[in-house]
Amino acid sequence: MIDWLATSVVPTSILLLVLLVTHRFLLRSFGAVGKYLSWSIVPLSFAIASLPSPWPENTVIAMADIEVLTVVAGNVKENFMQQWLTAVWAGGSATILLYLLFSHVNYARALSSTLKEMNDSRLKLPKGVKAYQSHEVYSPMLIGFFSPKIVVPENFKQLFNREQQAMVLAHEVCHYQRRDLFWNLIAISIVVLFRFNPIVWLAYFRFRQDQELACDHVVVAKESEQSRINYSRALVLVAETQPPLTFARLSFQSY
Predict the structure, then answer these.
(1) Is residue 12 within 8 Å of 200, Cβ to Cβ?
(2) 194-227: pLDDT as tens digits
(3) How many CB atoms lie within 10 A of CB 122?
(4) Which of 179, 197, 219, 189 is nearest to 101 (CA)?
């Protein structure tokens, strides 16, 4: 594990730096959706790196024999230290992931006790997705891996007019249709593995901003200019009612 991390740090950092440095160019050339899709290169590169080696089988056997001889020659202590570091690192990563998962599940459970279903036949939502109101949320959000729900503030209908309500909900539906909760889990897993690398953290924040921006683009892509203006006013309201460091608010500032 430690060997894999050590060999992956430099290429991962270079790849993320390229995506960060070329952000404006990619956004200008391919749009918000294309820029967001460019982040798929990162998990794809890990998947390619994990594929079986193309070297002949006899070469692999020979290398394995050399490794065994090296251990016998006196590197037992070094291998023990490497295994110990791997165990500590893997244990720390697993602990953080379990903590994040536990916190998410607890928050979802606590939130579920405050949910009030929105019974409005005019709301256009995908099959299997329902909208709820809660006084525990600041702005609309999508929660639930297995039972997805869109949760909006209790004063949702007072904050937004009818068109704004539909477009704000369409933003959350976009997250659902693109399985963004799943991709967020992959992203945070990579952050946990490379948590010592500040470039990974910077890339994660940019990834989440691009995620929000791409959904906004999908919502307004086919709308009239007046509808876009109306939606931008809804974004202002969302930014005003959210805590300062939430991703939606940070993404709004990038406009």
Answers:
(1) yes
(2) 888 899 999 999 999 999 999 999 999 888 999 9
(3) 7
(4) 189
